[in-house]
Amino acid sequence: MRGAAGGIVTAARNGRRGRRVLPAMTTTRQAGGASPVDFATFGDYGDFRRKQPQPATGEFVRSAYPFRGRITADGSSGYPAVAGRYHLYISWACPWAHRTAIVRRLLGLEEAVSLSAVDPVRDGRGWAFREGPGHSLDPVNGFSLLREAYEATEPGYDGHISVPVLWDRETGRIVSNNFPDITIDLDTQFGAFSNSTDLYPEALRPEIDAINAVVYETVNNGVYRSGMATSQDAYHDAVSKVFATLDSLEQRLAGRRYLLGDTLTEADVRLWVTLARFDAVYHYHFKANLRRLTDYPNLWAYARDLYSMPAFGDTTNFDHIKRHYYTTHPHINPTRIVPDGPLLDWAAPHHRGGAPAGHGHVAADRDVLLLECAERTAVAPGGLGGPGLRPGG
Length: 393
Known about the structure:
This protein is mainly alpha-helical. The chain is built from twelve helices and four strands. It has helices at 39-42, 95-106, 147-153, 179-189, 205-220, 222-227, 232-252, 266-285, 297-307, 310-313, 318-327, 366-375, and strands at 86-90, 114-117, 165-168, 173-176. Strands 2-1-3-4 form a four-stranded mixed β-sheet, sandwiched between helices. It is globular, with a radius of gyration of 21 Å.
């Protein structure tokens, strides 16, 4: 599934935005999955779901993830870790879902937890099951739309339809759509079925958690806060924090191969999914454009190092990523045109195999990390000029 270097993509599905009433779910079910993407008939995703209240400041607020069951090795949660019982519904385009595919592959859980992918392009009906390159019909329930899984779990559900979804075959319901929990449970509760890789070692958990907290707030979700902001101040705050953290990570990776030294951890997986999408999507589409990933020598080499591993490279589909973002955010890209570039050489030698080992130190207090990042960024809205920010990297 590895995409071409930089992701030259096939023709985009274009369409105009519509605001008609969504037909009943039963009209969309077909023997071959959902009917084709149709923006004119079904509108854009978000037109018909319950709106997440947004603050008057113009800051983006992420929708809730209400299904939060946990898998436990001993079954005490009601969901025991049993091979063959659970299925992951994902999109290769979605960074949160991409995490689960990487962790599943790194742990060797392909036979224990099955997986299928939805169409990366979604209209007003949300994520849908169709046959296509890199995506398929629903092999478990025969659903046409992912929202049928939500409806089966909570009749009348009208909230956000998100991936990943961890589905329980035995009870016929969603265990979790809360992406941070799913990968942790795969790593810590499926030891009887894994290859003994440990991405969340107990001794390193305080450091992993501290890094994850900052990376999520300022980078993973930070690019969304930048791209989805509806005021200049909200955008400026978000984009400044994105690059303050990237600047800090660039320095951190100068002396170690991975974020915690010579040990690949959950923290690397969580950072990777944003780096993989950064130049192809976030730099332009989400206006995170103070610098590109390729302007950071250490971060760019680190990203290529991870990409060279099958669990990362083989699960990264640039075609899905680009078509999803550029065709399904019409308020940002109303033409739905998918750019051909950028041309990135992900296969270039990274020269990081001999990077110095050692875990270093991460402040346990996430606020200290945020302060350190913020102090390195002082950019006036509309221009560069603060310490640590330089045109072109």
